[in-house]
Amino acid sequence: LREHEEFTKVKNIATIELGRYEIETWYFSPFPPEYNDCLRLYFCEFCLTFMKRKEQLQRHMRKCDLKHPPGDEIYRSGTLSMFEIDGKKNKVYGQNLCYLAKLFLDHKTLYYDVDLFLFYVLCECDDRGCHMVGYFSKEKHSEESYNLACILTLPPYQRKGYGKFLIAFSYELSKKEGKVGTPERPLSDLGLLSYRGYWTRVLLDILKKHKGNISIKELSDMTAIKAEDILTTLQGLELIQYRKGQHVICADPKVLDRHLKAAGRGGLDVDVSKLIWTPYK
Ligand code: ACO
Ligand code: ZN
User: Fold this and answer.
1) From CA 170, how far away is CA 141, in angstroms rounded?
2) Which domain of life is it from (predicted)?
3) Residue 202 within a domain
4) Which CATH number fits the domain that encloses residue 231?
5) Site residues for ligand 1, CB cut-off 6 Å
6) Residue nearest to atom 29 of ligand 1 (CA)
7) ipTM of this complex prediction, to 2 decimal places
8) Does 52 fall in a domain?
9) What is the mean pLDDT of residues 240-263?
């Protein structure tokens, strides 16, 4: 019941200010009751503290000494940096991030238990600091082999390839762990589109190189994509036949080329040599 109430609640905060952006919100987010009467919230773009009034934010910015998210910088390439934040060590930051993210995530229940999660915050950096572009969260231990819980690209940065970058990054972490991974369900429409696009491009590239002579298990080992996700992706592309009780990949080069053309832009690539990270223990 509580969950249902949360889903049907009307949107309270209509806009937020974050860094140099004013952003219209999409969904309800359960901010503490004392924020119920405001239409607009002001966020410190670095520590994600939120305030009711612009003057409060201005005062905060004079004394806040963060110029990037807390936690460890685990990736840097050009102006792009990724920070890993442990929800247990930075509880308030983790909670603020969840409140912010829920404004753009419909179907997710908010996790107050940020202790159990790691947050990966992607930033574009310049001389004023590291500006958050988007993030994903990941359970420290997942029984269901989830390698991503929630993903968000802030609206001013959407449709520029950051979402695909975040997804690719989540699989690079899984490869380093020596595990396969899959995103937590349900996926939103935009989430599904982005994942389908990522899976399609990664799998088609490999199939083209191997001229189709490869099994789903081998594909999964190479990409850290869960076998079920590989199967549904390839079925969607009509590259699977069922022969003698087995799923077989049928990759006609002409069909592959046609799909690759349709798969669109590759997006921003993760340069694995710039990732300095060891799995959570
Ligand atoms: N319309 C149509 N297709 C879209 C759109 C859109 N508005 N947005 C993304 N796509 C598809 C496209 O195929 C796109 O590839 P293309 O641009 O090459 O055609 C692909 O998704 C990925 O685009 P990116 O630019 O890499 O992704 P973006 O940075 O926009 O982030 C994301 C995608 C994270 C899903 C973003 O839309 C978002 O934050 N949405 C709100 C929150 C959300 O729904 N998150 C997923 C919930 S599910 C979960 O968390 C497990
Ligand atoms: Zn701050």
Assistant:
1) 14
2) Eukaryota
3) yes
4) 1.10.10.10
5) 104-105, 148, 150-153, 158-164, 183-184, 187-188, 190-191, 193-194, 197, 264-265, 267
6) 163
7) 0.97
8) no
9) 88
